[in-house]
Design brief:
The complex is a heterodimer of chains A (about 150) and B (about 120). Chain A has about 150 residues and is an all-alpha fold. Chain A has eight helices and no strands. Chain A: Keywords: Membrane, Transmembrane, Transmembrane helix.
Chain lengths: ~150, ~120
């Protein structure tokens, strides 16, 4: 008890009293919602292949674009954020979560105007995904290219 | 069967994300960034293509496929144009996703009112 309360043991002590997240239940919710979004994506892919003559490889593009449109609309209606509270990673990990972060950042800053608010903050949350994606893909691309040249 | 594997694999990737949120205490932005890098790393060994063949949208819908598509487009152009091709091709396969995210994100912000 006579231990001094400093920043370090404050974190340790307070950890004991923080409510533990319901790990299993959260995973079940993420699994079901994430899985359902992917099933819907599969449905769109099959639709684009059979009705619009896309090849199996090319069908990914219109599928992703459609999912992004729907997620942007769902964010506008306030539905996607409610889904996010329920599903956690189940709604954040699919590409719809990327669209949700773009749209919600744009909506949040709408009051600051279209140029300084909406347009400047569009990638406030999603920018990290693009930056890390491009940097890692670039580095890995160079490594793989040099590898192919040597071997 | 396509739909079953899309559900299982897509849901499984989301479980990994949920564990990173709950157990590793990462923020959603950290999880999404890590997943994109993971997708690019898996594409180096062509593992992600095998996952797409197997699970379809279960592998193309999660954000990991963004990293895979970035590297994939880059390597396709690198085969034609050498090292400069990496810069030419990096957004080749992802441009539909990024362009529609910008367009629809902007339009929704114009039309809808912010909530909460």
């Amino acid at each position: 008890m006579d231990e001094k309360m400093n920043e370090k043991n404050f974190e340790q002590t307070s950890k004991k009293y923080q409510p533990k997240p319901p790990y299993v239940m959260n995973c079940v919710k993420a699994f079901i919602i994430g899985g359902l979004i992917c099933v819907f994506g599969e449905l769109l892919t099959e639709m684009y292949i059979h009705w619009f003559d896309f090849s199996e490889e090319e069908a990914g593009n219109p599928t992703v674009a459609t999912l992004i449109l729907l997620a942007a609309l769902a964010t506008g209606f306030g539905f996607y954020d409610k889904l996010g509270q329920f599903a956690g990673a189940g709604s954040a990990v699919p590409v719809t979560g990327f669209a949700n972060s773009v749209t919600s950042a744009a909506l949040e800053y709408k009051s600051e105007g279209y140029v300084l608010g909406v347009a400047s903050n569009l990638f406030k949350l999603a920018g990290s995904v693009i930056v890390f994606g491009v940097v890692s893909a670039y580095v890995l691309g160079i490594i793989r290219y040099v590898w192919q040249l040597i071997f | 069967m396509n739909f079953v594997w899309a559900f299982v694999v897509g849901g499984g990737i989301c479980i990994i994300g949920q564990l990173l949120l709950d157990v590793a205490k990462l923020t959603p932005a950290h999880v999404m960034s890590s997943f994109v890098v993971a997708g690019a790393v898996l594409d180096v060994f062509d593992l992600y293509d095998k996952l797409i063949d197997f699970a379809g949208a279960g592998a193309t819908v999660p954000i990991t496929s963004f990293g895979h598509s970035l590297l994939h487009g880059a390597m396709e152009q690198a085969d034609e144009h050498g090292i400069i091709g990496i810069a030419i091709g990096i957004f080749e396969l992802t441009s539909a996703g990024i362009a529609s995210a910008i367009l629809f994100g902007f339009l929704v912000a114009v039309i809808f009112k912010p909530r909460g």
